[in-house]
Amino acid sequence: NKMGGGMHALLDRNVEKMLSEPWGAASAGIHYNKQVLGSLCDQFSRLEPQARRGALQGTLFMRQGQRVGLTAEVRSLVDLASGDKDQWVNLIARALGGLTERFDLRQLQQDVPAVADALASIRGAIQAEGTPDTYRPLEVYNHNITTPPTTPSREV
């Protein structure tokens, strides 16, 4: 249990920094246990929004064997985050909590403005740029090869 205790201390000390890094959630998630999740729940409201998001995302990187005994702890974390003032924390928590229920994107767009905004900007970008070149049919690229020259060139 010495290793688990060490990780607990490390997470307590560096939790915010670690969980705010792009892959921090993945690194932290594989070390989640009752102590670590309990500690995250205790500290949750004090963490920066990016770290709160990371704490939730970390649960996605838990191994199957880890997950078995930690359902209640994960649920506590998700419940804590569900009413969060940060829209993305709220969204991630709802998505995690909703894994058992049907995921309703339309309802989510109404409840979480950031989702509606993100979807609108994605749709806008697609409309503005049209179809990217990578999706052009192959014939367009092969046109010069397959079409015979209109006037035969005779070299003398």
Automatic annotation (TrEMBL):
Classification via Pfam families: NELF-A_N
Domain NELF-A N-terminal: 20-139
InterPro entries reported in the protein's UniProt record: NELF-A_N (IPR056557)
Name of the protein this chain belongs to: NELF-A N-terminal domain-containing protein
